[in-house]
Automatic annotation (TrEMBL):
InterPro entries: PI-PLC_domain, PLC-like_Pdiesterase_TIM-brl. Keywords: Membrane, Transmembrane, Transmembrane helix. The chain crosses the membrane at residues 297-317, 329-349, 384-406, 422-442. It comes from Streptomyces oceani. This is Uncharacterized protein. GO terms for biological process: lipid metabolic process. GO terms for molecular function: phosphoric diester hydrolase activity.
């Protein structure tokens, strides 16, 4: 006969009765509801903090819609946007078409990105509750600083675009020069004579041009003007004196434009919020959004504490068997995750109806851009919310699966009771922690953190250094700004970097003695007549000075101090932490002297050391930016002793550089031979020095792209460095951007 089942103890009966009490059942239901609600709140608040309150979210939306490219290519060139361009930019003494064509000079992409980031930061500060009032204002100081650059570009372009004609009569030529000065000062395209002048005639022409310049400026400009006129280069002579003409549009227009802009922008700052209000765009939606967004952190904390408390209550006072408590918890998490997903699916379905419609007075291109950004932002937001919903949903399904397996597998019964309790408790704690933290972390992973930009583009970060293309300025230090005789660039090195140059081809020298001038000139690109004339000009114009210099062939024809210029490059790199710059040095000083100069300029911290094997793979631009090793330095002749100072032609190859006319430009191997990882395209005309007029032709986007692609096909290697003279003329930078856009890792 079977033994009767033992009666339950009174204590056990009390526990069972206690767990079945009506009040406790109601408390468990309430705790379950709280768990579901807390899951929804945590996922939603976490999504808001990782998207609406994250800089990376806005940067991702702007990049996905190509907002910066569309700003230049669509909005700012839209005829209906011209009133804005006239108001802010066309106060310059240049035609409106010139302003439009040179928008990237006045508003470089790096400046626009920086200004946008500052507005995003101000908006986030308001939405987070860090500031009480919404303050959106743009610091136009960078724009004001670029006004003179645009004037310089315009003067150089005016002179370069002028027609050439022979003029044997000196008196007529001088009259034409006088007329050209008047045209240039008024912003009109001058009709320039191009003549072969004798020494006496060149002096007369120089005297005429310099007579319009303040006396304090004449001595410094004289060698530059006389050197240009010695070879009949009237364009460079006019570009040199143009910014110094007193009392004229050319001489004072840039400062007048700056003053006008300062006046209409309240001391150099543009109050965007005020203009938005005046244009009928209210900030009411932002104010209402702030009522929730600045509380998101507190809401998350409260939801996390409440949810964790509710889970602990259900675990302690839930079903008698722990496996049932685990199953119930899984059901609650699954329900919360599913409801969160449905909430964001509903938001995605209704997103188009929430998109704000820009006023009809806005230019269509701007309205389309804003609408596209809103739709992309809404889509990204809901996608992040769906990712956040997956965390509790997945955790809940996992708990349901574990509890089901636990009940079905007999193996689990062989575990000691204490071991089963620990395992079940551990699974429950791990899943609860994941549920609390997951909705915060997953949206961040979905939308990405603050994006990294390399040379102005997030996509370029994935290219290796030897896969990317870079705009290079030939003889970068030889500029009109720094008063070189027969310059090859208009802007100084810092401005060249601002305008998109990412490789600088420079020459290092010590100051030559008078008896060394003729020997140095033999190595220069100057024509024989030019060498003779320069020799007579430079000795009286610039006495010898000690130290290390950046010069073009001879320092008496123009020089900037090496260490000081390197320091300026370092400051620029510090101000632009996502940029990678290369320097290729025609080294007329020793490697030890070069290393000492870089050390004194505090640039060793930024230098990249190439692998000793020229055939080794280069890092990606993203890796170089992350490591802050963003300055690559090569020598044309020597190598070392510093490990970062390598001979360029061990790693790279080039095309010839002594082309006298555009039709001669070829792709045949020159220094460096073939099959090197780096490819330098020498893309300039040398005819008695640099040719400003030819630069306007060969620097055009189509001309650069045609030659680059032809050379890539012939040499079976992508072009890396496109070296040009007068980089401010033409659109070589646009060609380099097109080369990069077509390249993949």
């Amino acid at each position: 006969m079977a033994t009767p089942r033992a009666e339950r103890s009174p204590a056990a009966t009390q526990v069972i009765d206690w767990r079945r009490a009506r009040l406790l059942r109601g408390a468990r239901i309430m705790a379950g509801v709280l768990v579901v609600l807390c899951v929804i709140v945590l996922a939603s608040a976490g999504t808001v903090r990782a998207t609406v309150l994250s800089r990376g979210f806005y940067q991702g939306v702007l990049d996905e819609e190509r907002a910066y490219d569309r700003l230049y290519d669509e909005v700012l060139v839209d005829p209906e946007s011209q009133p804005v361009a006239r108001s802010l930019l066309a106060r310059l003494p240049v035609p409106e078409a010139v302003v439009t064509a040179n928008l990237k000079t006045v508003l470089p992409p790096a400046t626009v990105r920086e200004l946008t980031d500052s507005q995003v930061a101000a908006l986030l500060s308001y939405l987070r509750g860090d500031t009480e009032a919404l303050s959106l204002s743009v610091d136009l100081t960078p724009v004001l600083a670029n006004l003179n650059d645009l004037l310089q570009v315009h003067l150089g372009g005016l002179a370069s675009g002028a027609g050439e004609r022979s003029e044997a009569d000196l008196d007529a030529a001088l009259k034409d020069l006088d007329d050209a000065l008047d045209d240039l000062a008024a912003g009109r395209k001058p009709d320039l004579p191009r003549v072969e002048l004798s020494d006496r005639d060149a002096e007369d022409a120089s005297r005429l041009l310099l007579s319009s310049v303040p006396k304090s400026e004449r001595d410094t400009l004289r060698p530059q003007v006389e050197g240009a006129l010695a070879v009949g280069d009237v364009a460079t002579a006019l570009a040199a004196v143009g910014p110094h003409l007193p009392g004229t549009t050319a001489g004072e227009g840039d400062s007048r434009a700056s003053l006008d802009l300062i006046r209409i922008t309240d001391g150099g700052r543009w109050n965007i919020a005020e203009d938005l209000q005046n244009s009928g765009v209210g900030t009411g939606p932002l104010e209402r959004a702030r009522g929730f967004t600045h509380l998101t952190l507190q809401v998350q904390v409260v939801a996390a504490v409440t949810g964790a408390t509710a889970v602990a209550f259900l675990w302690l006072f839930g079903a008698r068997r722990r496996v049932h408590r685990l199953r119930n918890l899984g059901t609650l998490l699954t329900t919360g995750g599913a409801l969160t997903g449905l909430l964001f699916l509903l938001a995605r379905w209704r997103a188009d109806s929430w998109v704000w419609t820009p006023p009809g007075s806005w230019p269509p291109s701007l309205a389309h851009l804003v609408s596209d950004l809103e739709r992309t932002g809404a889509r990204s937001f809901t996608e992040a919310g769906l990712f956040a919903a997956l965390t509790p949903l997945s955790a809940g399904l996992l708990l349901l699966a574990v509890s089901a397996l636990w009940e079905r597998r007999a193996a689990s019964r062989r575990l000691a009771p204490r071991t089963r309790r620990l395992l079940l408790g551990g699974v429950g704690a791990a899943v609860t922690t994941t549920t609390v933290l997951g909705p915060v972390l997953v949206p961040t992973a979905a939308t990405g953190s603050t994006r990294v930009y390399c040379n102005g583009s997030a996509e370029l970060c994935d290219l290796r250094y030897d896969q990317a293309a870079y705009l290079a300025t030939h003889n970068s230090m030889s500029s009109t700004t720094d008063k070189f005789i027969s310059p090859l660039q208009d802007a100084d090195i810092t401005t060249q970097l601002d305008n998109g140059a990412r490789a600088l081809l420079v020459d290092t020298h010590t100051w030559e003695r008078k008896d060394e001038i003729a020997e140095r000139l033999k190595l220069s690109e100057y024509a024989p007549d030019m060498r003779k004339r320069i020799t007579g000009l430079i000795d009286e114009a610039s006495p010898a000075r000690p130290g290390l210099w950046l010069c073009h062939a001879i320092c008496r024809a123009g020089a900037v101090p090496l260490v000081e210029t390197l320091s300026e490059v370092g400051e620029w790199l510090d101000d632009n932490p996502g940029e990678v710059v290369t320097m290729i040095i025609q080294d007329r000083i020793s490697g030890d002297q070069t290393a000492s100069a870089f050390r004194e300029a505090d640039l060793e911290r930024l230098l990249y050391t190439p692998a000793s094997d020229p055939g080794a793979n280069w890092p990606t631009l993203g890796q170089m930016v992350e490591d802050n090793s963003r300055l690559v330095v090569f020598a044309e002749n020597g190598s070392g002793p510093a490990p970062w100072y390598r001979n360029f032609y061990q790693y790279g190859m080039e095309t010839p550089y002594a082309f006298k006319e555009p039709g001669q430009m070829s792709c045949v191997p020159h220094r460096g031979g073939r099959n090197k990882k780096l490819f330098l395209l020498n893309h300039f005309i040398t005819h008695g020095g640099g040719s400003r007029i030819d630069a306007g032709e060969v620097n055009s986007r189509g001309f650069v792209l045609d030659r680059a692609r032809r050379c890539e096909a012939e040499r079976q290697q992508p072009v890396n460095f496109v070296a040009v003279d007068f980089a401010n003329l033409g659109s070589a930078r646009a060609a380099v951007d097109a080369l990069n856009a077509a390249r993949t890792p």
